[in-house]
Design goal:
Layout: H1 13-27, H2 33-48, H3 55-70, E1 74-78, H4 80-85, H5 87-97, E2 100-103, H6 110-122, E3 135-136, H7 142-145, E4 146-147, E5 157-161, H8 165-173, E6 177-181, H9 188-191, E7 195-197, H10 201-214, H11 220-229, H12 232-244
Parallel strand pairs: 1-2, 1-5, 5-6, 6-7
Antiparallel strand pairs: 3-4
Helix pairs in contact: 1-2, 3-10, 3-11, 3-12, 5-10
The structure holds adenosine-5'-triphosphate and magnesium ion.
Protein name: 4-phosphopantoate--beta-alanine ligase
Pfam families: PPS_PS
Keywords: ATP-binding, Coenzyme A biosynthesis, Ligase, Nucleotide-binding
Length: 249
Amino acid sequence: MSDIEIPEDHPRYESLLTRHRIEDGVDKGITSRQGLIAQGRGEAFDYLLGEQTIPSADAAERAAAAHLLLADHPVLSVNGNVAALVPGELVELAEATGADLEVNLFNRTEERMEAIVDHLREHGAEEVKGLTADGRIPGLSHERAKVDADGIGDADVVLVPLEDGDRAEALAAMGKTELVVDLNPMSRSAQSATVPIVDNIIRAVPNITRHARELQDASREELQRIVDEFDREEALAAAERAIREGGDE
Ligand code: ATP
Ligand code: MG
């Protein structure tokens, strides 16, 4: 609930804040009840990672920034959890990289689509895609396949935070470069990503924006070098090690 005050010096401040934002999201019709369960899974992994951005995640966030800056048509996919947790931060990332924002839901209802679009607009977004839904991702059932033809349908690079495994795999099969934020390095979403970012979305999005701003004037060659030097297998292995060893890589 938004009226609950959490003392900033509470040792688990960020985790409690995250929980309240998700609860608020459910109250506002932005986040689904399924989203609460996804949040619980995420929290468990974040706890094991020491609730910090591990060095391999920071490298993945820099590679993601380079991909977004190099892209012809980057799109940031937004679901109910992401909209509740980092709406303003996503708008900033879209601005820093020239990306489109598109709402994309696992449990799609027109009410929730519109609530999320309005919520993003309240946080400064101008154009938000997703309502036209005139494109399809091959290989998925009807409702879950819907995208905007001039949005994710046309994108070469897509940031998909907290995406379900099926759709992450289907987008990868379409040949899109997928940047996935997921705290579980073993999830199919992370496993099918071009760039798996094993970090909390709350830390990941502002950090990708910071890297994108830093790289704003970098040459295409330099951006390409950052992309080429990123090793997805090593990043996944480093995250698994960090979980086993209690937050240290
Ligand atoms: P799979 O990818 O193996 O098919 P799934 O997609 O069915 O699994 P879900 O519960 O739908 O699993 O997805 C939620 C995922 O999002 C989990 O892997 C969870 O760790 C991750 N997650 C939840 N909250 C956050 C968060 N705040 N930041 C980053 N990742 C999160
Ligand atoms: Mg998943």
